[in-house]
Design brief:
Structural class: alpha/beta
CATH class of the largest domain: Alpha Beta
Shape: globular
Number of helices: 18
Strand order of the largest sheet: 2-1-3-10-4
CATH architecture of the largest domain: 3-Layer(aba) Sandwich
Distance between the termini: 33 Å
Radius of gyration: 20 Å
CATH superfamily of the largest domain: Periplasmic binding protein-like II
């Protein structure tokens, strides 16, 4: 399922929200109605992600819908796999760009797979943890409680994830480890297919007690399915995850070798979108109102208030992001009884920051 399946009615609403001819050009490009306007013929970039719509991917979507990739001479086509881990698809040549958690890419890089991380979108670990409110009330815990008290609540619960190795699964394992909980013996991590809809249905049927996933699914669970935040990772994460590179741009080494100019152009469009999000949040909100059409207005307002602040102003990856990624991956590997990342694996093995740096310089 591609994002080109957006309805013409939604296009018109989005255009009205963002305003102007430039917005119409950008939104029409997002659903494939017209080619992006640029001085040269547009280059098509294939981008891959796990789910169709989420605040996690919204910087790329805004880059499309706001015309920012068009300004860089690109048309970006997006495919959602509905799987938590998608590095195999990138290795197999099914996409030019993969958006996802950097830890997933790093785990295959150490197996000598020719992938590189070239940029970032989100520097908050913005997969939120929600649990049925009656469970939290019984435990005397709320989202405002200490990290340790909140983590201890997870003992014995059935928590939904998007699958082993994906960001939500890793975060739950990390939080349980902080509380001394063995996630494989003292809790139950349940992979649920179908993304947000699947997790909401599983909670509604009582199959799970809560789940970890990004907004707006977490906010819908609170509004309609009796859940409450245990960890709102956008506004109140554990301190060590306050500047954590969570959503990154991964590419194959062959793309760097043979399509570097295209990758630089992609990072230009992404940078323009990120700057616009941080510099003019009202315009971003106008676009997001149309993009998340059908979302309960109250849910949207709450989601925007927190998630509009998760985006990096500059997508260039930094070494401190890598260090935190390694620490986090090692903690998750520990809970799986697997060896840690090799000590010889360094920033230059995982990242190529030169592409984003060149893009920023050229804007």
């Amino acid at each position: 399922m591609t994002l080109k399946e957006h309805s013409r009615r939604t296009v018109l609403k989005t255009v009205a929200a963002v305003g102007g001819v430039a917005a119409m050009q950008g939104v029409a490009t997002a659903i494939g109605l017209v080619a992006p306007r640029s001085a040269h013929a547009a280059t098509t970039v294939q981008s891959l992600r796990s789910t169709a719509k989420s605040w996690l991917w919204a910087a790329e979507d805004y880059g499309i819908g706001g015309g920012f990739f068009g300004k860089a001479g690109l048309e970006v086509n997006v495919t959602a796999t509905r799987r938590g881990v998608n590095t195999a698809a990138l290795i197999g040549g099914n996409a030019d760009i993969l958006l996802g958690a950097p830890g997933q890419t790093m785990k295959v890089q150490v197996q000598n797979q020719p992938l590189k991380l070239i940029g970032g979108l989100v520097n908050k670990y913005a997969s939120n943890v929600v649990v049925k409110k009656d469970i939290l009330d019984k435990a005397g815990v709320s989202e405002a409680s200490s990290v340790e008290d909140k983590a201890r609540v997870l003992k014995g619960l059935k928590m939904g994830t998007t699958g082993p190795g994906a960001g939500p699964d890793n975060l739950l394992r990390y939080l349980m480890d902080k509380a001394g909980i063995n996630p494989d013996r003292e809790a139950e991590l349940t992979p649920v297919q179908g993304g947000g809809k699947g997790l909401l249905a599983a909670m509604d049927r009582g199959v799970i007690d809560g789940f970890c996933l990004s907004s707006p699914t977490a906010d819908i669970a609170i509004k309609k399915f009796g859940a409450a935040y245990l960890f709102n990772m956008a506004t109140n994460p554990p301190p060590e995850l306050n500047d954590y590179l969570y959503i990154s741009v991964a590419v194959a080494q062959s793309a760097i070798d043979g399509k570097r100019d295209m990758l630089v152009d992609y990072m230009k469009g992404l940078t323009l979108g990120l700057r616009a999000i941080n510099g003019d949040p009202n315009a971003f909100k106008g676009w997001a109102t149309g993009w998340f059409e059908g979302l309960d207005p109250d849910v949207f307002e709450k989601a925007f208030a927190s998630n509009s602040r998760i985006y990096m102003p500059d997508p260039t990856p930094r070494e401190h992001h890598f260090v935190k990624n390694v620490e986090f991956v090692n903690l998750s590997l520990k809970t799986l009884n697997k060896d840690p990342m090799p000590s010889s694996f360094g920033f230059a093995d995982a990242y190529d920051p030169s592409i984003a740096a060149d893009a920023v310089k050229q804007i």
